[in-house]
C-alpha cells in the first residue's frame, strides 16, 4: 500500500500535455495504453513494458526524472533495463518526453512497482555476545533487552521467530525468551555462582513460522552468560562444615598457656590457627582480625592480617579466657565472629624431652666449615635435632640448642653445621643440650656423626655441580667400548672355529657331509660309484720292533688322523700284511665314520668289528694325513694295550 500511495500524485498528471498556445486543437500527442506495472523483485523482464504512440514528426526520449539506468527506449517501446530488487528500490519511474524540432510537445510518466519476495536471510548484529549477570539478580527480571538481541531482515514484511537452545546442560532452567517474536532474555530462577558460574546458549532466528514453509531462512548466534558473584555470604572461620550451599558452621578454637610465662611465639590452637576466608570465594575479600571482647587486661594480641594470637603479658594464676574474635572483610561489607578459649594452666616446669637418645648423621670427609650434617637414615635431608616440652607444645619454639663437648660442630636452630674442615674420616660423638628459655628446663642427647670418604648419596632431582664428563662424552665412550667389544667377540669366534670347529661339528649329533680330502674312509662310495677293492693294509718296518713297555692307559679319544687303526689280529701277531683284511660296511655311525669288519684265515667263528670314528681336526695330523708314517698312525690310533670301551668298539 505504501508504493501505491506514492503513485497518486503522478497519476493526476499522467495525461498532462504540454501544448504550444493556440495549437491545442490541431496538435497530436504521445501516449501509452498503460502507465503502472507490478514486477516481482529478482525477475528478469525481457519483453517490452509498453508501446509508445509517437506522432509523425516527433521523437520520444527518457527525461532526467527517470530512475537512473532502470529503463531504455528501443524504437517506440519502453524496456526495463535492470533486474529489480525491492530492498534497493521499491518503485521505478520512467519519464517520457516527446519533442518536435526540439520543442517539448508531450510529457508522460510510467511507474514500475517492485513486489517484495522472501529472498534474504535474517542477520544478527553479532556472532557471540558475552555478558555479565550479577548473582543476586532478581527472578523474572530482563537480563538482556530485546533491542540487543534482535536480528535484522532486509525483507521488509518478514516476521521473525526466535528460539533459545541450551549448550550448557541445565542452563534452560535459568533463562528463557519473553516470547517467540520478542527475543528479550529473562531470568527464571535464582543464580548460584558456585553451582553454575557460566552458561552458554544458542540463539536461532527464522523468517518463517516453521521449517516446512518455503522459502525459509535462518541465522544463529551464541550467548555466553558469566555469573558475577555477589557479596551474599560473610567470612567463615576455618575449618567449617557446610549445612547447605550458603551457610557454613564455623570453627571455634582452643589453646592453653602456662601461668607466669610469656610465650615467644604465637599460640598453638586446636583444631588449627585462627583463619577465615570470604564466604564469597569469587570475591575473596581480604579478612581483618580483631579481638572485641574477653581480652582481660590486654593479655593477648591478634595480628590483624594473619590472625596469629600471641601473649602480651603473663597470667599470674590459672584462669580461662573466652575471646570473641571478629573477622571482617576489608571492604567492611560483612563480618563474622568466633570464640577462642584459652586456659592459663600452672606449669610444673618439666624439662624438655628428646624423642631419641641417639641421633645419627653423616658428612663427607674434607667438608669445610658451615656444611650441613645430613641425616644418616635419609642422606638427602639435613639432620634435625628437636626436643619437645611435655606440658605445653607452645613452649617448643622457646627451646634453643647447643653442642657442649665438641668444637668441630655447632647448632644453628635445629640443624648441625661443621665449624672446621674435617680432614680425617671416622665417627665423632657430640652432646646436644636443649634449653627452654621460658621454664629454664634443660635436656641432652647424643649425636653420632660419621665422616665418610665420599659425599653421601643424594636423592634430589637437581643436577650434580661436580660433573667431570658430560652426557655426550659418556655416550661417545660407550660407543667406542661397544665397538671394541664387538671386534673382540668376532676375533674369539674366528679362533674357536679354526681350532675347535670340526670337534664341535662331530659332537653336534649330525653326520658331516663327505669332503674330498676328509678323514672318512674313501673306499666307501655311493652305490653308483662302488669300489669294493680292499684298502691296502698298513705296512710295517721289517725290523722286529722292540716290545714296548706297558704304558698307562690313555683316556679314550677319537682316532688320530694320521692313518687307519691297525687290525687287532695283526697288532697282536705282528704278522704279514695279508694276515687280515678289512671290509667297510654301509652302516654309518651317527658320530661320523663307518663300521669296518676285519677278517683273516685264522679267524674262526668270532670276528672282530672295528668302528672307525671321524678323526679330530689337528693341524699336524691334517698336514700328514695323506703321507704320514703308517706305523705311527697305527700306534696313535690304538694298539694291543688299549682297552676296549674307548671310541673304537671291539666286538
Automatic annotation (TrEMBL):
Residues 71-124, 125-237, 249-354, 355-459 form the Cadherin domain. Residues 510-595, 617-651 are annotated as: Disordered. Residues 641-651 have a biased composition (Low complexity). It is a single-pass type I membrane protein. Residues 535-568 have a biased composition (Pro residues). InterPro entries: Cadherin (IPR039808), Cadherin-like_dom (IPR002126), Cadherin-like_sf (IPR015919), Cadherin_CS (IPR020894). CDD domains: Cadherin_repeat. The chain crosses the membrane at residues 474-496. One of its GO terms (biological process) is cell differentiation. It is found in: Apical cell membrane; Cell projection, Microvillus membrane. Coiled coil: none annotated. Residues 1-25 form the signal peptide. Intermicrovillar adhesion molecule that forms, via its extracellular domain, calcium-dependent heterophilic complexes with CDHR2 on adjacent microvilli. Thereby, controls the packing of microvilli at the apical membrane of epithelial cells. Through its cytoplasmic domain, interacts with microvillus cytoplasmic proteins to form the intermicrovillar adhesion complex/IMAC. This complex plays a central role in microvilli and epithelial brush border differentiation. Part of the IMAC/intermicrovillar adhesion complex/intermicrovillar tip-link complex composed of ANKS4B, MYO7B, USH1C, CDHR2 and CDHR5. Interacts (via cytoplasmic domain) with USH1C and MYO7B; required for proper localization of CDHR5 to microvilli tips and its function in brush border differentiation. This is Cadherin-related family member 5.
Amino acid at each position: 500500500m505504501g508504493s501505491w500511495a506514492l503513485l497518486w500524485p503522478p497519476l493526476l498528471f499522467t495525461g498532462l500535455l504540454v501544448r504550444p498556445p493556440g495549437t491545442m486543437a490541431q496538435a497530436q500527442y504521445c501516449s501509452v495504453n498503460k502507465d503502472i506495472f507490478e514486477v516481482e523483485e529478482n525477475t528478469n523482464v525481457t519483453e517490452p513494458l509498453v508501446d509508445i504512440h509517437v506522432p509523425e514528426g516527433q521523437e520520444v526520449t527518457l527525461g532526467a526524472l527517470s530512475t537512473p539506468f532502470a529503463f531504455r527506449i528501443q524504437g517506440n517501446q519502453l524496456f526495463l533495463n535492470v533486474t529489480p530488487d525491492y530492498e534497493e528500490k521499491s518503485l521505478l519511474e520512467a519519464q517520457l518526453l516527446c519533442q518536435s524540432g526540439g520543442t517539448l510537445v508531450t510529457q508522460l510518466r510510467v511507474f514500475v512497482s517492485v513486489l517484495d519476495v522472501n529472498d534474504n536471510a535474517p542477520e544478527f548484529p553479532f556472532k557471540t555476545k558475552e555478558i555479565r549477570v550479577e548473582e543476586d539478580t532478581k527472578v523474572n527480571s530482563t537480563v538482556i533487552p530485546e533491542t540487543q538481541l534482535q536480528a535484522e531482515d532486509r525483507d521488509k514484511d518478514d516476521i521473525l521467530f526466535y528460539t533459545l537452545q541450551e549448550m550448557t546442560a541445565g542452563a534452560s532452567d535459568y533463562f528463557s525468551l519473553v516470547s517467540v517474536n520478542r527475543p528479550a532474555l529473562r531470568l527464571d530462577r535464582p543464580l548460584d555462582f558456585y553451582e553454575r558460574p557460566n552458561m552458554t546458549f544458542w540463539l536461532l532466528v527464522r523468517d518463517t513460522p516453521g521449517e516446512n514453509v518455503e522459502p525459509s531462512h535462518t541465522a544463529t548466534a551464541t550467548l555466553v552468560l558469566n555469573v558475577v558473584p555477589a557479596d551474599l555470604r560473610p567470612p567463615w572461620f576455618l575449618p567449617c562444615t557446610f549445612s547447605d550451599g550458603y551457610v557454613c558452621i564455623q570453627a571455634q578454637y582452643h589453646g592453653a598457656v602456662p601461668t607466669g610465662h610469656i610465650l615467644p611465639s604465637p599460640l598453638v590452637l586446636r583444631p588449627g590457627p585462627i583463619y577465615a576466608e570470604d564466604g564469597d570465594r569469587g570475591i575473596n575479600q581480604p579478612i581483618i582480625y580483631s579481638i572485641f571482647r574477653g581480652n582481660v587486661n590486654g593479655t593477648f594480641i591478634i595480628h590483624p592480617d594473619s590472625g596469629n594470637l600471641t601473649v602480651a603479658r603473663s597470667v599470674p594464676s590459672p584462669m580461662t579466657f573466652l575471646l570473641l574474635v571478629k573477622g571482617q572483610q576489608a571492604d567492611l561489607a560483612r563480618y563474622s565472629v568466633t570464640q577462642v578459649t584459652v586456659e592459663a594452666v600452672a606449669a610444673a616446669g618439666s624439662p624438655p624431652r628428646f624423642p631419641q637418645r641417639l641421633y645419627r648423621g653423616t658428612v663427607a670427609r674434607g667438608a669445610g666449615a658451615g656444611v650441613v650434617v645430613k641425616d644418616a637414615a635419609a642422606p638427602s635431608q639435613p639432620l634435625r635435632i628437636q626436643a619437645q616440652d611435655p606440658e605445653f607444645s607452645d613452649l617448643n619454639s622457646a627451646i634453643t640448642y647447643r653442642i657442649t663437648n665438641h668444637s668441630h660442630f655447632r647448632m644453628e636452630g635445629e640443624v648441625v653445621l661443621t665449624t672446621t674442615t674435617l680432614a680425617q674420616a671416622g665417627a665423632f660423638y657430640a652432646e646436644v643440650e636443649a634449653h627452654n628459655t621460658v621454664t629454664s628446663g634443660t635436656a641432652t642427647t647424643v649425636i653420632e656423626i660419621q665422616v665418610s670418604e665420599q659425599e653421601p648419596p643424594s636423592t634430589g632431582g637437581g643436577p650434580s655441580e661436580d660433573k667431570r664428563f658430560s652426557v655426550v662424552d659418556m655416550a661417545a665412550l660407550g660407543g667406542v667400548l661397544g665397538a671394541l667389544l664387538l671386534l673382540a667377540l668376532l676375533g674369539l669366534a674366528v679362533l674357536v672355529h679354526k681350532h675347535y670347529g670340526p670337534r664341535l661339528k662331530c659332537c653336534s649329533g649330525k653326520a658331516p657331509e663327505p669332503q674330498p680330502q676328509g678323514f672318512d674312509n674313501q673306499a666307501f662310495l655311493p652305490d653308483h660309484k662302488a669300489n669294493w677293492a680292499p684298502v691296502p693294509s698298513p705296512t710295517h718296518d721289517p725290523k722286529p720292533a722292540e716290545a714296548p713297555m706297558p704304558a698307562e692307559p690313555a683316556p679314550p679319544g677319537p682316532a688320530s688322523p694320521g692313518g687307519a687303526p691297525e687290525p687287532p689280529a695283526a697288532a697282536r701277531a705282528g704278522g704279514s700284511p695279508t694276515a687280515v683284511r678289512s671290509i667297510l660296511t654301509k652302516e654309518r655311525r651317527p658320530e661320523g665314520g663307518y663300521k669296518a669288519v676285519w677278517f683273516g684265515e685264522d679267524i674262526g667263528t668270532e670276528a672282530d668289528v672295528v668302528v672307525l670314528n671321524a678323526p679330530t681336526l689337528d693341524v699336524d695330523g691334517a698336514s700328514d694325513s695323506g703321507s704320514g708314517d703308517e706305523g705311527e698312525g697305527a700306534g696313535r690310533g690304538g694298539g694291543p694295550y688299549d682297552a676296549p670301551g674307548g671310541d673304537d668298539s671291539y666286538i
